[in-house]
Design goal:
The structure is a single chain. The chain is α+β, with helices and mostly antiparallel strands. The protein has 2 domains: about 40 residues, Orthogonal Bundle (Arc Repressor Mutant, subunit A); about 90 residues, Lrp/AsnC effector binding domain/regulation of amino acid metabolism (RAM) domain (Alpha-Beta Plaits, 2-Layer Sandwich), CATH 3.30.70.920. About 30% of the residues lie in helices and about 20% in strands. The strands form 2 sheets. It has a 4-stranded antiparallel beta sheet with strand order 2-3-1-4. The protein has a two-stranded antiparallel ribbon with strand order 5-6. Helix 2 packs across helix 3.
């Protein structure tokens, strides 16, 4: 269980992982030495897995498409969800794999250069797998907010179209 101080440190670190131990000390009240040791411990214990920027690819001239793919799985003797999910970790196109509740069992987040590339991945790599009963693919058309960060400023927000009879 995390102490209140460690929880505060993780929260501040999750908001901006570029902060130095001295800057984190100012925000948390913890000593820089304690912060450095705690971060190193969390890295070794796999509590902190990766440091990563959040990039707004819409502002770059790089084509990129993200899709959410829901999978309904067939029950397999001797294979639980964890074992089946492990099969999907090998695909570099798959960025995240989640066990979910509802009509589907797993949700995959995948990235590709375009919709065709993602559709090809689903038909060539996912659909033939013997553990999949059904898939549902949804493409992300626009990100408004991710990881607590807004992607569109007030002046850039699209105007809602008026609905008139």
């Amino acid at each position: 269980m995390l102490s209140e101080e460690d929880s505060r440190l993780l929260h501040v670190l999750s908001q901006d992982c570029r902060l130095t131990p001295e800057e984190l000390s100012i925000q948390t009240g913890l000593t820089p030495d304690y912060i450095s040791k705690k971060i190193k411990q969390w890295e070794n214990d796999k509590v902190i897995l990766k440091y990563s920027p959040l990039i707004n690819y819409d502002l770059l001239e790089e084509e990129r498409v993200t899709a959410l793919i829901d999978l309904k799985l067939l029950s397999q003797r001797g294979q639980g969800y964890d074992k089946i999910a492990q099969r999907f970790l090998k695909f570099p196109q798959i960025k995240s794999v989640y066990l979910v509740s509802g009509d589907y069992d797993l949700c995959l987040i995948i990235e590709g250069k375009n919709m065709h590339e993602i559709a090809q991945f689903v038909s060539d790599k996912l659909s033939p797998l013997d553990v999949i009963e059904a898939t549902s693919t949804r493409f992300i058309m626009r990100r408004y907010k991710q990881d607590g960060v807004e992607f569109v400023g007030e002046e850039e927000r699209p105007q809602r179209l008026m609905i008139t009879p």
